[in-house]
Design goal:
six-stranded parallel sheet; 6 strands; 44% helix
């Protein structure tokens, strides 16, 4: 019996976040350049996205490119941006076919103009889809996001539009790029690395973490189902004790 058949359909996480890691190592294992791994990662993105929609996940956020990734060799960054442009254009019809809406978070204006334009076009072209939202984290880092939120809130205080004592958790959440998106209940990271890497630090406060040795290009929907199955076996207490949850 596969993991798909063992999953409780009434306990599907509303939002899953993924750190897609291991493309470079996957390519190196095959004696190829790193960009070869990025090219083959598209299959994993497509299969995982379709699997998430199939099982009832409503939000799937994928860490596609961090602000720190700009420090990589220019040749690799340029290849990644070009690949991103072509992938978004090629996959938009599939998103519409599967009734999936595309969203993006991050410092999007820092993307190359062609990439930004293609992204905005795809977001607009899928805006009416209802089945699931696929959120791409592009030129994103959580420290950048929180810093920008602090700046925005501070500016409102400075202008007298906001009293400091009115600042609370919800207000901070409303100034993040994920405003309107529920916090992830489950975060998956591939490639055997056990860290969050500046990803959704505020939003992952109570998320369950699942780490797998599998490199991202080899990740498929059955691996997603395994992570969800593992998630469903855990007790989510949110600071309480087990006895309180049983009441």
């Amino acid at each position: 019996m596969g993991f798909r058949e063992q999953i409780n359909p009434d306990k599907i996480p509303l939002h899953i976040a993924i750190i897609m890691d291991g493309n470079g190592r996957w390519a190196k294992q095959k004696g190829k350049f790193r960009v070869f791994g990025h090219q083959n990662a598209i299959k994993a993105v497509r299969d995982t996205t379709e699997g998430a929609a199939e099982i009832g996940v409503k939000y799937l956020t994928m860490y596609a490119f961090s602000t720190e990734n700009w420090r990589r060799p220019k040749k690799e960054v340029d290849a990644l941006m070009e690949l991103l442009v072509h992938t978004i254009a090629d996959e938009t019809p599939t998103l519409n076919k599967n009734d999936i809406r595309l969203l993006a978070i991050g410092d999007l204006k820092s993307l190359p103009p062609k990439c930004f334009a293609e992204l905005m076009e795809a977001i607009d072209g899928t805006k009416n889809n209802k089945r699931m939202s696929l959120v791409l984290a592009l030129s994103y880092s959580s420290k950048w996001e929180i810093t920008e939120a602090v700046k925005s809130i501070s500016e409102k205080v400075k202008k007298g539009e906001l009293n400091p004592e009115d600042i609370n958790e919800q207000m901070i959440s409303d100034h993040l790029t994920t405003k309107g998106i529920p916090d992830p209940e489950l975060m998956i990271r591939t490639s055997g690395e056990y860290r969050i890497s500046n990803y959704l630090l505020w939003q992952l406060a109570y998320a369950e973490l699942f780490f797998t040795e599998k490199l991202w290009p080899d990740f498929r929907r059955e691996d997603l189902f395994q992570a969800i199955y593992d998630y469903q076996k855990r007790e989510r207490r949110f600071g309480m004790v087990s006895e309180q949850l049983e009441k």
